[in-house]
Amino acid sequence: MDENNIQCESAVDGSFKDVTNTVIKFKPPLYRQRYQFIKDLVIQHEPKKVADLGCGDASLLWMLKFHKCIELLVGVDINEDNLQRKKYKLSPLIGDYLKPREKTLTVTLYHGSAVERDSRLLGFDLIACIELIEHLDSEDLAKFPKVVFGFLSPAMIVISTPNSEFNPLFPAATLRDSDHKFEWNRMQFQTCQVSQVGKYGKDVWAPATFSMKAFRVLVYTTTYPSLQQNKYRQYAVVNEVISQVYDMRRDLLESLKLQDDRDLADLPEDTGTSEPPFQCYHPVLTQLNANMEKTPKPFCVGNVFYVPLERLFSLPKVKHLCIDIEMLKTLIADAVMLNSDGSAVMVDIHDEDNDD
Amino acid sequence: MSGRARVRARGIARSPRALESTSVDLCDSNTSSSSGYMGTSRTSQTDKDDTSSGDVGCTFMGRDGTIRRHFMDLGVCTRENLAHVRDCKTGSSGIPVKLVTNLFNLDLPQNWQLYQYRVTYNPDLESRRLRIALLYSHSELFNKAKVFDGAILFLSQKLEEKVTELSGETQRGEKVKITITLTRELPSSSPVCIQVFNIIFKKILKKLSMYQIGRNYYNPSAPVEILQHKLSLWPGFAISVSQFESRLLLSADVCYKVLRNETVLELMTGLYHRTGMSSFTQACEKELLGLIVLTRYNNKTYRIDDIDWSVRPTHTFQKRDGTEITYVDYYKQQYDITLSDLKQPVLVSLLKSKRNDNTETRIAHLIPELCFLTGLTSQAVSDFHMMKALAEVTRLSPLSRQQRLARLADDIQRNKNARFELETWGLHLGCQTSLTGRVLPLEKLLMQDQVCQPESAADWSKDMRTCKILNAPSLNKWLLIYSNRAENVTESFLSCLRRVGSPMGFNVDYPKIIKVQETAAAFLRAIQEHVDPDVQLVMCILSSNQKSYYDSIKKYLSSDCPVPSQCVLTRTLNKHGMMMSIATKIAMQVTCKLGGELWAVEIPLKSLMVVGIDVCKDTLNKRMAVVGFVASINPGITRWYSRCILQRTTDVADCLKVFMIGALNKWYKYNHGLPARIIVYRDGVGDGQLKTLVEFEVPQLLSSVAESSSDTSSKLSVIVVRKKCMPRFFTEVNHTLQNPPLGTVVDSEATRPDWYDFYLISQVAHRGTVNPTYYNVIYDDNGLKPDHMQRLTFKLCHLYYNWPGLISIPAPCQYAHKLTFLVAQSIHKEPSLELANSLFYL
């Protein structure tokens, strides 16, 4: 933990550019560098539950919501208006409905103080407090380590605060933001209570002794569709099965038609000789075929085209979504027609006739 | 051809208009999405960071130059210039009928006002976000109902002072003085106020967890999946607040968003399987260029302008900060997305720069795997099965539509946040408006030697069986071309055609019969070989439904060598037990193509010319507009003069003068004088074009009318016809809701105070809810009473010869539509003038 803090500091320190005249600009901007730091941590450790205390305009949460590993994302901020205005940028996109995630993600925003003992934030894998502590007044600052380390006690925590040693390089004000209560230098940061993490071993604090009153007010919560939810898993399976069945049917019809055409008139063979610029499907296709060859082939009886479930189950996408053939069968049963013993999907070989 | 053949094939069971009304229904939901015109790119608005203000930004004039087109139309007050309807525009004939509408009352306290403030910052702040954040952080404004776009602030409660000064501080510590100055107090009927109401209702729908796409709001949690076609339909609502005849109303309609559960990569894979390697790139380009795609990760929409086959996801590009990164790494880092196909090409989209001064066009590279297709391709629209599946979901009966609306109103009332939003503004959502319409009397049909009162105005094909048509030139010299595959049906069809002809009074002689190979070229060669100036008609029996056959035949016979032509599909002829009715329909169609007349209705005005104008886009070259103009050239309104032109500008028809003078000359030739009255029905008008119409098209028509005669010129009226409109009407019959009867006119409550307008229901919707047709008289010298104008319009809906029944728009408009459709879809150039006297395009 401690190490992380220091890493963070140095990550920030390392990359500011030369002083040009009066105004310093960081590239990429400082806040981005800090967010990137969190992002890298997420990529590295794959936490499931992540909270951002003092989430502000929810930019960090927005960056994190793309990560597949995260299942719960919580933001807390004291500025409710800001949360109200920014909350929709955390809502699922159209694409999230069309191609749902693997795991369900819930995003929740609370309005309230960062230093509340909120049991809803217990058991998190990562809590980020980016540029938060300098906004706390002395009373809250005193509570902060107790709450964060002692009570919430996440597996990982990242705390960052501006380094006042650089302040002389900025124009005007003594503090960088009017809401800042203090700005520390590296020394102050490392000696302050916040970084004295060791003090709060789990044995010191017994969470049960706190009253679990939650003062934070829920501002927004949304749950992303995912393949863990039965509805979306079913959509995904049926979608894949139907499109594969129709593809197989089309292939069959086309091979028949081609033969038919050749019989009727001696068509010259396609003489296109130009090199195809787009060959990506070859490897994928051959691989597919190899897996599928072992399974029973689709067949035709009268005007009905049958595709054995076993063959469908050999498709990688289907296999990924269903544990076994039985599950495949239950998922698609409502959407497609199965033959009497439930071993194959049936469709008409021709589309129902065009008269209406 | 497909559409055409199908209309014919299905015509037996259903009227073509009823059919089209379903597609209109769909358009409701997908113009904003995709398939149609300008609506597509709007999806990108949904993900703006500052949503509440984003809405405002594009609504208020000035900021980025976009004003809602619909609101622009509302500012065009045409009624004030029409003296005879200034006081009253309602008719009185017909039987009153009680109608329920989809319009909700919106109640405001008396003397309610909206306060508009100008907000300035000192020093001035460039960023709108910052401006908004600073103002919103002030407690003075915190609990007030407000709408703010960065410069203009609207409040429902007046601030204490006329000028309020606040101070704020940016994160950098800069002190900023904010001055809020009262600029206007607006009554609830003012256009600005109405825009604010619309924003408020958008906020409310958002609070009901609905998802904004384009202008409408959808419910993503209850999609209807059409899995076989990889479609996902989101149910939603199109709502808008606006000032109707006497009061403020919220109109709400159910709509569906068609989303495609298919990525561009999947489509390409499918194409690859279908076309094979050799023509794969062309097929991709043909299918994809111009499509709008939706990116999975940021919800933005892009137009595909090109495909770059040389770039792969493993190639690098330069990020904004100048560093190089591969596409694969970028998407992995940024969005945790792993690309599965590393050899896919990239799609290229030209980005429109938001700032006008920046002339440099930027391009975006998109990965096919991450782009969803949006809307329906033209191929999809012509897929009968898919459209049927779609229609089954989207076609709602009046009752279920009403239930959805009631639920929406209920949800708004019950949701605490939504109600709070309404209350802080002082608004109250009331009940649905009901009003009284009138049902016009049905028309009798005038046939050659009898008058026929059809049993059903929706379809009088049965009633016609015993009647002779008005005028049928006999068909003496004609060609019948068929392919070797169609041999067996051709003979029986021919005898059938001759048999049904005689009771109608249509004499069909034996044609010259030519048998050809089943290729488009063979058909064309046969036509070129055998057509001579005496040939009255070329009939082709096609065994395949390929558009290229139809297009090449039509193109040659409409412009290169002008002879009326009729294409028939063998599939249509093979329908069991339908041969007689199909032959009858074809006989009527052929009669019209030869210049014959089928039936008439009584027109009390003795010297009246009616004109229909339609505009649509050419399918090959989207920058070209096809303008069709069809004018009646006899007092009985049974004969027509049809012209069509392709022009570069798409908004206004600028060839009307030529057309109008041509039509007047024709009229003069046949009637030895000019028509006393001319009534023009203009279809194909988009939102926001009303002003251009009034300023450019009406003067063109007026000056051509004035130029054609030295003394008294004809009196002119111009009526804008719209097949799509917000209001829906239902009648209550036996405790359930139904579509209103045919001939229902609504000219109060749901109309607009500044327009001389009315709604007319002239078509049946067997399934689903009927779409009333909206008429707006924008110019009227004739001074007909509203009653007469409405009845005349209704009469004209009886005169479309391709369908023995009522249709949704006046016949001249439908003819013009049919003509532009043929030109835009198939022939892509002007048809020969020699054909102008016949309905060759039916």
From TrEMBL, chain A:
Cofactors needed by this protein, per the record, are: Mg(2+)
What is the native source organism of this protein?
Answer: Orycteropus afer afer
Q: Name one GO biological process term.
A: siRNA processing
What's the gene? HENMT1
UniProt catalytic activity: small RNA 3'-end nucleotide + S-adenosyl-L-methionine = small RNA 3'-end 2'-O-methylnucleotide + S-adenosyl-L-homocysteine + H(+)
Database matches in SUPFAM superfamilies: S-adenosyl-L-methionine-dependent methyltransferases (SSF53335)
Does the keyword section mention RNA-binding? yes
Classification via InterPro entries: Hen1, SAM-dependent_MTases_sf
Q: Name one GO cellular component term.
A: cytoplasm
Instruction: Give an example GO molecular function.
Output: RNA binding
Annotated transmembrane regions: none
Q: What is the taxonomic lineage of the source species?
A: Eukaryota, Metazoa, Chordata, Craniata, Vertebrata
- Top-level taxonomic group: Eukaryota
Described function: Methyltransferase that adds a 2'-O-methyl group at the 3'-end of piRNAs, a class of 24 to 30 nucleotide RNAs that are generated by a Dicer-independent mechanism and are primarily derived from transposons and other repeated sequence elements. This probably protects the 3'-end of piRNAs from uridylation activity and subsequent degradation. Stabilization of piRNAs is essential for gametogenesis.
Query: So what EC number does this one have?
Result: 2.1.1.386
The name this protein goes by in its record: Small RNA 2'-O-methyltransferase
| Family per similarity comment | Belongs to the methyltransferase superfamily. HEN1 family.
Top-level EC class, please?
transferase
Q: Is Ion transport there in the keyword field? A: no
Supply the alphabetized keyword list. Magnesium, Metal-binding, Methyltransferase, RNA-binding, RNA-mediated gene silencing, S-adenosyl-L-methionine, Transferase
UniProtKB/TrEMBL annotation, chain B:
**Region Disordered: start and end of each range?**
1-55
Q: Name one GO molecular function term.
A: RNA binding
Composition bias of kind Polar residues appears in 20-44
Stored Pfam families: PAZ (PF02170), Piwi (PF02171), Piwi_N (PF23278)
Q: Which residues form a coiled coil?
A: none
SUPFAM superfamilies according to UniProt: PAZ domain, Ribonuclease H-like
Piwi domain location: 537-828
What are the entry keywords? Cytoplasm, Developmental protein, Differentiation, Meiosis, RNA-binding, RNA-mediated gene silencing, Spermatogenesis, Translation regulation
A cellular component annotation (GO) from this entry: cytoplasm
Domain PAZ: from-to ranges: 263-375
SMART domains for the chain? PAZ, Piwi
User: Which spans does this entry mark as compositional bias, Basic residues?
Assistant: 1-11
Query: Where can this protein be found?
Result: Cytoplasm
What GO biological process, any one, is recorded here? regulation of translation
Q: Which family does it belong to?
A: Belongs to the argonaute family. Piwi subfamily.
Q: What is this protein's record name? A: Piwi-like protein 4
Q: What is the source species? A: Orycteropus afer afer
Q: What is the lineage of its organism?
A: Eukaryota, Metazoa, Chordata, Craniata, Vertebrata
